[in-house]
Amino acid sequence: MDGFSAEEIFTKENGFAYNDFIILPGYIDFAPDDVLLESSLTRNIRIKNPMISSPMDTVTESKMAIALALQGGLGIVHYNNTIEEQAAEVRKVKRFENGFINDPIVLAPGNTLADIDAIKEKYGFSGIPITENGKLNSLLVGIVTNRDVDFETDRSKKLVDVMTTDLVTAKKGISLNQANQILKNSKKGKLPIVDDKGRLIALMSRKDLLKNREYPLASKDPDKQLMVGAALSTRDESMDRLAALVDAGVDVVVVDAAQGNSIYEVDMIKYIKKKYPEIEVVGGNVVTEEQCEILIKAGADALRIGMGPGSICTTQTTMAVGRAQATAVYRTARYARKHSIPVIADGGISTIGHIAKALSLGASVVMMGSMFAGTNEAPGEYFYENGVRLKKYRGMASQEALDAGGAKRYFAEDSKIKVVQGVSGAVLDKGSMFEYVPYLVQGLKHSLQDMGARDITTMHERLYSGKLRFELRSPSAQLEGGVHDMYSYKEPKYM
Questions:
Q1: What pTM did the predictor assign?
Q2: Which of 136, 138, 62, 144 is nearest to 106 (CA)?
Q3: Contact between 285 and 263 (Cβ < 8 Å)
Q4: Domain presence at residue 418
Q5: Are residues 334 and 476 in the same domain?
Q6: Roughly how many angstroms between the first and final C-alpha of the chain, as a whole number?
Q7: What integer pLDDT is reported at residue 312 of this predicted model?
Q8: Is residue 331 classed as helix, strand or coil in its secondary structure?
Q9: Is 462 a catalytic residue?
Q10: Of the residues 313, 323, 331, 334, which is catalytic?
Q11: Which of 241, 331, 409, 462 is the catalytic position?
């Protein structure tokens, strides 16, 4: 056979990154849309889209987790926050699928149209309930929608002068189906949910109901709620954090350590599996077979692979410890497969091709940070630099993140001197996850088609049988494989 098997390439003395090799084409007898991307996230959780978000404070909170879960992936909420704040983010995701918005943005009669404009600019919607004091659990007095404000020229006008007061509401305790029927009959876009005293406690949106119907591949638990994960450290504080996360409904927890082969992580995994056996646990980060063995024996339901390949990570340079990511994924996935444990490729992914390569080497799922950091759903505000719209992105071992609590991940929380292993920077605006993820998914389907694999399971079978063929690339070959010899060209929206 032409080319080489993964075994022949990735078990030699050199470590390889994703750009160091190429996958040879297979035989095509199916269309891209025939490709199925369903894969195992953990021992007992399968998702339709093998993409999850990194638990970084500039990547994943509830909005990111909701967007990914709706599209068949899953978000892992970061822990650079208080226990209450992290649990609240998880709870928002779990409650989303109920159809009720339990923490709607609320304004007061004294707010102005300019406040509505600011909300629309930031969040993309303008249907806002108005209560007496501008807070939830206060008397509902009106609602402001686009039809109330679109043709008003004076943006300093108070909402009390434009809001709709003839309201259709529903009482607390109403079922999703009943509320849905009221929305259909009233032909309204929003349905405020009030208690017996007329105080606003939630909101229902026709747009969200339609959105739920538009995402048949959504990652849902047995109760039909969106699935969500959360990170925690190996510190004792994480036991209280874990209890709050379980109470909030978390489906999977990631024990988030830069070097996961430690007695602290082993003890944490054992504690979680004993205390909450129903919760799936991802152990990591690891890069060797020996590390995998230890965490699998401790009870890990999946392994997170990567030490230093992230775009904002300097661990390999600073600490001289880690492993080239492609080699790490292949070696760990090959070992974990013997124990029916999926591996998650974490780091080093900046293109659709990298996603495909990680999966081709045995990963069941890829975890991404920088790829998602520039989207609308990532935490933080956009800013402009030299006319380019950007969003802040920082490594969890950057100075800023360490100061905010990220040192827990590096066993450095109590250290007087904290050694930085990452940087802070910015990434380009990528727009909405609801446009970006479908693009990534379609590109990945085309990649599997070129390999001749209808699904990830088939691709893995071909990998381990030696039928999936690879070839190393020289620096010249890598240059040849990208854009070259052009006077100028326009980059596509998504690279």
A1: 0.77
A2: 136
A3: no
A4: no
A5: yes
A6: 32
A7: 66
A8: helix
A9: no
A10: 313
A11: 409
